[in-house]
Amino acid sequence: MGRTPAFDDAYPRALWELERAHLQARMERPPLPPDRPSEDVLGFALSGGGIRSATFCLGVFQALASLRQLRRIDYLSTVSGGGYFGSFLGRLYRRREVTTVEHVESLLDPAGLGAQRPAAIPDVVAWLRENGRYLSPNGGGDLLIGAAITLRNWLTIHVVVLSFALLMLMTGQLLRVNLEGRCWWFDPGTLDEGRWLWWSPWIALPGVVFLWAATPLSWAFWMTGLWRGRRRLVEWPVWGVLAMGGIAIALVAGWEPLPGVDWWPLVGGVTLVTIGSTGLAWLLLLYVARRSSRGEDFPSPESRKIFEIDRQRNLLSTYLKVALVAGGALLVFALVDSIGQTLYLLRMQSGGGFRDLYAVLASLMGAAAFAQRIATALAGRANGGRLRLPLAAIVTTVALLLVALLLVSLSVLAHAVSWQFQPPSGGPRGDEFRRFVLIVWSLLLLFDLLFGRCWPFINQSSLHSMYSARLTRAFLGASNPRRKGVDRERITDVMPGDNIDPADYWPSPPAPGTTDPTRRPLHLINVTINETVDGRSNVQQQDRKGTGLALGPCSYSVGIRHHAVFPGHQVFLPPSDGRPPGEVTVFPRPRREGEVPVYRVFTAQPGGAGWPGGESLSIGKWTGISGAAFSTGIGSRTSLGLSLLCGLANVRLGYWWHSGVKPTWRAGGRRPWFLEKLFTVQSSLMSEFVSRFHGTSRGHWYLSDGGHFENLGDYELIRRRLRRIVVIDAEADPDYGFEGLANLMRKARLDFGAEIRFLNATEIEALVPKGHQHLFGSLEQLRRGKWTEEPVKDRLADLKRLTVDEPVDEARLSLAHAALARVTYIDEPTTGEAAQAPGWLLYIKPTLVGNEPSDILQYHRAHRHFPQETTADQFFDEAQWESYRALGYHIGRAVFGSGDPTAPGAANAASPPAERIFGPGASPANTVGTTRL
Fold first, then answer.
1. What's the Cα-to-Cα distance from 605 to each of 579, 608, 666, 718, 932, rounded to whole Å?
2. pLDDT class for 806, splitting at 50, 70, 90?
3. What domain range includes position 188?
């Protein structure tokens, strides 16, 4: 089987060779081909969905364990909630007591039909059940701890953010007090009768920027290309200057266009601006002309001129955008300062004090705190779909109003501090006044500088640490033998062995010829790199606002074609013998001058490879990042309003990861500003609040839930072109709109040229044995609602000709648990000796068809949203947890077992349908092969 160039980019041969060594060590494994995974390699993808997905996946894998099919899984790709269970299972394989796959299957088998459990291994499933409320497993006490942590972080982050905003406002005050008596427009006076606003002296700055920056840039745009060919005299923009000069001369000579009207101020001002802006425009033209022709080679002088003109206009338009943004920022600053000093003056004139100022600030902080619940609810909704336009507009408006109130309140405070809480007309003056403002400004500057360089604060102040710690103790802790004993069963306590280093979780491949009796699958953890600003990272499309980052035993993969490949995570640990244990190979290798991969080193090394590795994080940390569903950055669903609300409420589960790569601003991106370097923490927080993420073009990457890029976890399995894939889709989908599946299908087609086509009922009848046909259906038949039979005269229609009424009726049932799809690749031949057999994708979704155990059906009657309850619910009680686990076990036994899990002998069913579904060369004509799962 050959490899295409697209396959080599997406899945380098070097990466397959390393993963092949892991797979080859699995017992009873025939030799694997050297160039690509064989047709019997099986991958499972576990979707996001929080505790709901984790618990449902546990039930499915318990069914596989009871059928002795767990050992046949080669790859395990997880996202978010699926990663909760995936990390638990991977940690279980790494237990010292676990020496064979039979031990793992017996631990998960609820019927106890497997091998004898080792005495030292506790009931891991019971631990998971008891910690279904992993955020507050012990009730009110844990909630108080969580509330205390949340309040502490919320207060601290607001102290940092608001003090930085106050520093900016005090900077204006510092400049202002030094201009007292020196500038005519400095007016510390009072409001006259009829004046409703005391304008800030900085209100003139936006006009200055517009006149002396935006106007020359606009003027220069129309002056480009004047030397290309001969122009008529009337086409020269300089005639505008001459015309204005002529009008001025005529006025000097006594010309009066309208008697009684004084034209001198208007004409003089316009003439001055026109002449000045024209001169600046010529200087700008000279500057961009030099920039546009550097280091370029052209076939002819005419082509060079065309390029230079296009480049000059592009640069001038870019500079104009910067000038307008700067002017807008100054306008906002001036308006805030104007409103702040007006409110301060009115308060002083009314004779009131400033005791109620703190009450106003406290109420605003309380409003921000109340916004936490709103932000959590909206983030949960956004995690399942984009916010609709009216709701997005309302959220953005509310967030901007809240920010405006905070800024105005801080402006009032800045004026109060500057005037020492005295009226402006009778307040302090002179050197004492300036000295006091300078001292306050210096203290604020020192405070902000100290916090600006304290990088660990940005991640420790979020909810990520608490969230990942609870996840680690609940799911990885379930595999920790030291948790045995009543005195060590509190999830809020830290125990040795709960967490694990990637080098221990993903060991290096065994030596050739050795075997791994545990047959552990290769676990791939998926997260999202948020990118909303074009940073020339070359790894994402702007609509996606991010790209995937997949961590595995032998690689870090970013996007479609960027990889850091290594023999094992041991290469990132300090060498014990003075020699590096391995080499990191970066893909793609530069193919032309100027091309750089994502993974670059800060110090030049031979060949440009040798990524030193990023910040070292534990498996618990990576699992928490993979499940960071609610945050300021949520991939394609990121919006300004939602980011502002989440930031102000400190609903931040994402993580700023130091990637260890060299920023790409030298390759065309924007160099970080001086203030961004000086106040690193504050600028990063501001980036979160206003949803400006630079992706991989900066050294720090903002990571969040892998579902923000692709929520089913199948992206990495499609990358490897596995021929047998099982997808467990347990994401929140109450309307059965299959948004996550549609997103996967689009990305698989666009990124890897993979077409995923689901079979209809007629095709399923030809493929699936009769004993299992009632379990499989089209995607439409997975929905629940009122089903009616319609006589449709269409040869392509489903066999049963059933349609479901709209909208979905949550009280009713579905017709199937699973669907089946073919996966083909557009660059692979379909005929001839090089033809590739199509891949098969088995899609399982939590559904109810009516034959489930009575307790599951009763829970559905009492909770109509089951089994599609919201992901925002992360507090599962015993009945809820057991219902999802039992449903997963029921569906798993049905799909992979005899077809009827209640039939006699179902536990030892020897012919699961996967034997018939996933055989090589499967097609409706040959009743589908006989390869075992």
1. 17, 5, 18, 33, 48
2. low
3. 181-352
**Lookup: tokens for 835:** 């033809």
Contact (CB, 8 A) for 69 and 912: yes
Nearest in space to 730 (alpha carbons), one of 585, 932, 871: 871
Average pLDDT of span 618-636: 91
Is 36 within the bounds of a domain? no
Residue 524's H or E segment, with its range, is: strand 522-530
Is the residue at 56 inside a domain? no
Residue type, 5: P
The residue written with tokens 């009827």 in the block is 900
**Of the residues 323, 352, 381, the one at which a domain ends:** 352
Instruction: Give the CA dihedral 228, 229, 233, 234, nearest 10 degrees.
Output: -70
Structure tokens at 504: 């221990």
CA separation, residue 641 to residues 56, 176, 637 (Å): 33, 33, 11
SS3 839: strand
Q: Number of folded domains in the chain? A: 2
SS3 189: coil
CB of 708 closer than 8 Å to CB of 530: yes
Question: Which residues are CB-contacts of 565 (< 8 A; sequence separation ≥ 6)?
Answer: 12, 14, 15, 18, 554, 555, 584, 585, 586, 587
Residue 709 lies in a domain: no
Boundary (domain end) residue, out of 305, 329, 352: 352
Given a contact cutoff of 8 angstroms between Cβ atoms, the answer to whether 619 and 499 are in contact is yes
* Sequence-separated (6 or more) residues with CB below 8 Å from residue 126: none
Q: Is position 266 within any domain?
A: yes
| Percentages of the chain per state (helix, strand, coil), in multiples of 5 | 50, 10, 40
Query: In Å, how far are 22, 32, 554, 730 from 19, measured between CA atoms?
Result: 5, 11, 7, 28
CA distance 740 to 490: 36
Q: What is the mean pLDDT of residues 636-661?
A: 89
Strands 585-587 and 546-551: unpaired
DSSP string, 424-444: TTTS--HHHHHHHHHHHHHHH
Nearest to 588 by CA among 54, 40, 13: 13
pTM, full prediction: 0.85
Lowest mean pLDDT among 245-249, 417-421, 552-556, 807-811: 245-249
Say which amino acid occupies 320.
L
Q: Is 889 helix (H, G, I), strand (E, B) or coil?
A: helix
Q: Rounded mean pLDDT of 72-94?
A: 94
Question: In sequence order, what are the residues at sequence separation of 6 or more whose Cβ sits closer than 8 angstroms to the Cβ of residue 702?
Answer: 529, 530, 633, 654, 655, 656, 657, 687, 688, 693
Q: What is the pLDDT of residues 5-58, one digit of tens each?
A: 889 999 999 999 999 999 998 877 788 988 889 888 999 999 999 999 999 999
pLDDT at 541 over 80: no
